[in-house]
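Submission checklist for the structure archive. All mandatory fields must be present; incomplete records are returned to the submitter.

[x] Identifier: Probable membrane transporter protein
[x] Organism: Phytoactinopolyspora mesophila
[x] Residue count: 298
[x] Sequence attached
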Amino acid sequence: MQILVMLGLVGFGAQMVDGSLGMGFGATSTTLLLAMGTSPALASATVHLTQIGTTLASGLSHWRFGNLDWRVVRRIGIPGGIGAFVGATFLSSLSTAAATPLMAGVLFVLGLYILIRFTAAGVPVANLGKPLRNRFLAPLGLVAGFVNATAGGGWGPISTSTLLASGRIEPRKVVGSVGTSEFMVATSASAGFLLGLGFSGVEFSWVALMLVGGVTAAPIAAWLVRHIPPRILGSAVGGLIVLLNSRTLLSEHAFDASSDVRSSVYVVVMVVWAAAVVHVVRVHRRQLGQELVGTGSR
C-alpha cells in the first residue's frame, strides 16, 4: 500500500515540478523508480508511458492559460520524437548491469546542471521576439529526445534551458511549449520501448497511479508557472536528483565505494544543496524588496 501511495505522490510531485519549470518529470520520477530497484529500461518505459497522459493534460492546461508557441511545439516535437524512438530502442538493447550506471551518470549530470542553472543564472530576455530558426530547433529536439529516452529524463533540462538561454521566447511560453511537445517524445519513446521490451515487466498499475497523480497536478502547475519562483524550485529539484543518483553511482552497481566515502559524498552534496537553496531564497527576497521599493517610489 505504501508503494502505491508513493507512486501517486511521485507522479503528482514530478508533474508539479515539470509543469512549473518545463523540466524535471523524467529525471525526478526515473531517479525515484531506480531507487526502488526498477531496471533502467523498465523505469524509463514506465515514465514515458505515464508521460503520454501527463503531457497531454499539461499541454491542454498550458493551451488554456495561453502558455504556448505552436511553431516551437511543432518544430521541436517532431525531431524530438525521432530521437526518443532511437534512444528507447538503444537502451532496450543494453543489459541492466551496463545501463544502470550509464543512466545514473546522465541523471547526475542533468541534476547538477539544473542545480547550477537555477542557482547561478537568471532568465535572459535581451532577444525576446526574435524568431528561432528550424536549423536550431530540429537538432535541439533530436538530441534532447535521444537523451530523454536513454536517461529517463533530459527533454526539459536540455530543451527548456537552451530556449530560455536564447532569450527569444517568454519564459512561460518556453515552459508550455516544451511540455506540450513532450507528448510526441513520450509517445515515440514508449513505442520504442514496447518494440524492444514488449509488455513483459511493465507494471501498468504503476503507470496508472503515476498518471493519476500527474494529471491531477497538471492544471495546478500550469497556473503556478505564472506565480512560483522557478529558481527556488529548480535549485531544490536539482539537488534532490544529484543526491539520489550519487547513491546509485557509489553503490555496487557502479563504483562500489566504501561506506566512509559514501557518507562523505552525501554530506558534501547535502551541504552544497542546502547552501544553493538558501542563496536562491535570499536572492528572491532581495529582488522582491527592490520591486516593492521601486513601486513605492512611483
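[x] Structure attached
Curator remark: Residues 2-296 form one domain. The chain is about 80% helix and 0% strand.
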